Each structure stands twice: as structure tokens, then as C-alpha cells.
Amino acid sequence: MPQYSKIPTIVIFTTVVLDSMGIGIIIPVMPALFAEVTGSANISDIAVWGGLLASTFALMQFIFGPILGALSDKYGRKPILLLALFFMAAYYLLMGFAQTLWLLFIGRLIGGITAATHATAKSYMADISLPEEKAARFGMIGAGFGLGFVLGPLIGGLLGEWGPRTPFFVAAILAAANGVLCFFVLRESLETKNRREFMWYRANPIGAILDLRKFEGIYPLLLVLLLFSIGTSIYPAIWPFFAVERFEWSPSMIGISLTIYGVCFAIVQGVLVRPAIKIWGEKKTIIIGFCIEFSAMVTFAFLTNGKILIILIPLASLGVLAQPALQAILSKSVGDDRQGAIQGVASSLNAISMVIAPLTMTWVLAVFSDKTAKYYFPGMPFLLSAFMVLLCLLIISRRNQAVTS
Questions:
Q1: Is residue 233 situated within a structural domain?
Q2: Distance in angstroms (rounded) separating the CA atoms of residues 117 and 331
Q3: Residues 82-140: tens digit of each pLDDT
Q4: What's the pTM?
Q5: Range of the domain at 219
Q6: Segment 149-189, tens digit of pLDDT
Q7: What is the pLDDT of residue 396?
Q8: The predicted structure's pLDDT at residue 402
Q9: Of 8, 36, 107, 166, which one is least surrounded by beta carbons within 10 A?
Q10: pLDDT tens, 285-297?
């Protein structure tokens, strides 16, 4: 049984917050950086390069997530976490100094490969948590991500006043400082008896997924995770474009709406997950979260009043209750020696969703937002996402209650 103080939990939470801040802190200055490097002020050209770099980052996460997960099952969580943090610091420095597009691409390759802090943090949390604690601990990680999501862009916007490269250097300092903190404070969480040999055949997305076939009911859960990740990725994929098309919002209004969602996201995962699991259990919490998410997406699809949308954002954010409960069931579905593997697979599925969602959802939005379209309906991407969540609801509802609660 895990017997740890609260210090590692606090350090892991801080790690996720700083990591998310480091990612979000650079968002406000990306257009200016691309304009500086490419020498083009054409926003369409800049957006194309931004999309390619984003897909490159996500693709590297998809490929290398299981590799780093398998390595953490062999060598422990702490070495992989430290490796990821210090390479992440190098990635930010490279992005800050880059004067050419190919250097930016190299930077994004490195960043995507070493973006293992969330998966490794979840593996660490799984190691030090009792089964009944896992959902709440994963909720804490989600809250840390939400908090960093809120603080990062705000700080990045302020730092951007000193130039588009300043936030990258600050992010590098945060990542390095976080690495030093983890080095001196964290103890290794994976016991020697629970380690397993690293094998290349299972250290890739397909091999890692196939290696989990011995665990009953794991594939439906992974399918649910993939569909839910794609469905909920609609928010970062099309929110700014949808808000402009449907409500004619200004950039500041878009920023306010995202900040509201980020704050609510953090509160739900950090405060409400534990009592929800205690009252309803994991399976019912997932079902309730899916129902809320489905209802929110259908409502957003048909809304024409931006003020009502703002009012509904806190209610819609309750849908994220499902995430930590689903992660807890996934974690408990495999052995202690495969926590890194399952989190690596989860990281890969989340990454591939971030490749699929922007490409498909923006295309659907473009088709149904064209003024010459036979059916003008900008809310169509939300209906498509709602359908994916509905499939998740049907799959999880059929899962054996005795196994999941």
C-alpha cells in the first residue's frame, strides 16, 4: 500500500501547473514570432505554419508517449520526469533563439517527444495513491492543468510586451526550476518489484495497445477515451472561429470566455471530483459527466445569444467530471507494473485527438459557415462532437458496474 506524505502530491501538482503555464505562456506571441521568422504579415500564411507546427508536436506525442511510458516502467518515474523537464527547458530556449522555420520545427519535435510530464505525473500519482484515491488525485492533476491554462496566456500576454521571444525564455526558466525542485524533493515512486523490462515491440502506440489485450475490458475504455478526447478537443480547435462567426465576439471577449472555462475546469477537477466519486462512484460520475457534456454541446450548437453562452459555461464545465473518473478506471484496469504503459497509451490517444480534431472540426465549420452553403449551420461541429460523446455514454453504460465502481 502506498504510504507517502502530501509533499509529493503538492510537487506533482506544481509540476503540472508550471508545465501548463509554460505551454500557455507562449500562445499569445506565436503569431508575432511566426511573422518575425517568416517575414510575412499575412495571417493565413502564419496560420498554416502554426497548424503544421501544432500537428508536428501532437504527432511526436503520439509516437513517443508509449516509449517514455515504457521507459518509466523500467527505470522509474523520477528519471523520466527529470529528463522531460530539462529537455523541455532546452526546447523553449531553442524556440526563443530560433531565426528560421526549420529550427522552430526542430524545437517542436523536441517539445513533442519530451512532453511526457502529464503522463509521467499521472503514473507517479497512480503509484502513490490507494485505489479509492486515484480519481481525486487525477482530478487534482486536471485542476493543475486548468490553473496553468488560465495563468499561462495571461502572463504570456504581459511578457509579450517585451518582445515575442521573452515568454519562451521565462518558460525555459520555469521548466528548469521545476526540474531542480523535483530532483531535490521527489522520491522515486515505482518500487523495484513492480518494474518490468523495456521492449521495443510494446514501446510504440500500436504495440503498447496490443500489449494491453490481456486486461479484460480495456479496449472499450480506450475507445471511450479516444472518442471523448476528440469530441472535447472541439473547444481549442474551433472556439475562437465559432465565436466570431456566430456571435461576432472580439478577441477580448473570446479571451474572457476561455478564462471563465479554465477557472471552472480547475474548480470542477480540483474540488468537485472527490465528493462526486464518493456520492455516485466512478461509473455514475462518468455517465453524469458525459450527459452534461452531451447536453452542453447540443445547446451550444443551436445557441444564437452570446450572453447566454457565457452564463452556461460554468454548467458546461461540469462535464469534465468524467475525465478523472475514467482515468482512475483505466489505471485500476492494469497492474502496478504497467502504470507507465497505460498512461503512455492515454497520452498517445490524447495526442492523436489533437491531430484529428483541428483538421476535421475546422473543415466542418468551414463547410457549414460558408454563406453559399446549402445548409448554413456553424454549430454543426458541436453536434458531431455531441454524437461522439453519446457513443461514449452508450459504451460506458454497458460496462459491468462491479468492475468500475
A1: yes
A2: 17
A3: 888 888 888 889 888 888 888 888 888 887 787 666 777 878 888 888 877 888 888 88
A4: 0.71
A5: 7-186+204-404
A6: 777 777 777 777 788 888 888 888 888 888 898 888 888 87
A7: 94
A8: 38
A9: 36
A10: 999 999 999 999 9
Give me the pLDDT at residue 403, please.
Answer: 40
Residue 194, in any domain of the structure: no
Q: Which residue type occupies 30? A: M
Q: Is the per-residue pLDDT at 238 higher than 50?
A: yes
Encode burial over 240-268: b for 16+ CB neighbours within 10 A, e otherwise. ebbbbbbbebeeeebbebbbbbbbbbbbb
**Cell numbers 526550476 label which residue?**
177
Candidates 177, 172, 153; CA nearest to 11 is 177
Residue 236 inside a domain? The answer is: yes
134-159 vs 251-267: helix crossing angle, rounded to 10? 150
198 assigned to some structural domain: no
Q: What is the CATH number of the domain that holds 136?
A: 1.20.1250.20
- Rounded CA separation 87/107 (Å): 10
Instruction: List the grid coordinates of 249.
Output: 465576439
Q: How many domains does the chain have?
A: 1
210-231 mean pLDDT:
88
For the chain, the three-class secondary structure string (H helix, E strand, C coil) is CCCCCCHHHHHHHHHHHHHHHHHHCCHHHHHHHHHHHHCCCCHHHHHHHHHHHHHHHHHHHHHHHHHHHHHHHHHCHHHHHHHHHHHHHHHHHHHHHCCCHHHHHHHHHHHHHCCCHHHHHHHHHHHHCCHHHHHHHHHHHHHHHHHHHHHHHHHHHHHHHHCCCHHHHHHHHHHHHHHHHHHHHCCCCCCHHHCCCCCHHHCCHHHHHHCCCCCCCHHHHHHHHHHHHHHHCHHHHHHHHHHHHHHCCCHHHHHHHHHHHHHHHHHHHHHHHHHHHHHHHHHHHHHHHHHHHHHHHHHHHHCCCHHHHHHHHHHHHHHHHHHHHHHHHHHHCCCHHHHHHHHHHHHHHHHHHHHHHHHHHHHHHHHHHCCCCCCCCCCHHHHHHHHHHHHHHHHHHCCCHHHHC
Q: What is the pLDDT of residue 221?
A: 93
Q: How far apart are CA 209 and CA 222, in angstroms?
A: 9
